[in-house]
Design a protein that fits this description.
The chain is mainly β. The chain contains two helices and nine strands, in the order ββββββββααβ. The protein has a single domain, classed as Calycin beta-barrel core domain (Lipocalin, Beta Barrel), CATH 2.40.128.
Amino acid sequence: MTATTTGEPIQELDEIVGTHFIYTYATGWQYEWYARNEKECDYRIHHGLVGGRWVTHQPIELVQLSADGQFKADWHEPTGTCVSLFFDLPRRRLHGTIFFPQWIGGQNQHPEKTICYQNDFLEDMHRFRDEGPAYPYVIVSGFATITYMENAGRDNDEVISMAPGQLPDGYTDRTN
C-alpha cells in the first residue's frame, strides 16, 4: 500500500468488492454479507438477536487497512444501530461490533420490529428509532469464522434477493 499526498493509504478495494461471505460468530450468530460495491453492502441475518432480518443497498464506509487482505466496513442503520466489521481475508476471520440502541438490544427490547426486509419498512425503522430509547447502547462484539467466501461480482442483485427463511435447506452450511 502506498500513501497519497495527504498521508492516507491508497484504497485498493478490488479484493473485497463483489465478495459474498457467510460467517458465524462464536456465539452461534450467523450472518451473510455482500460487498455490493465501494459504497454499499447487502446482508442477511440467519441466527442471532435479529435473525430473519435482511437489507440491500445499505450505505457503508469501506476501507483497506493493509496490503494483506484486511478491510473494514462501517455503517449506521435507519434503526439507530451502528455496525463495524473488520475482515481478515487470508485468515478467514472477522471481528464485528454491533451497537444496538436500547429499544432493540436493551432491557425492554423489541428486536422483532426489525425482522423484515428493511428496505420496505424504512419509515417504520425511522419511527422506532426516534421513539427509542437509544441510550445506553448495547455493545455486542466478537470474532467470527468466515465459512464461505465467493466472488459474486459487483452490484449483483441475485446475491441477497430473498428473506433467510426462503432459502433452500443447507444454504448456510456451505463451506469452501
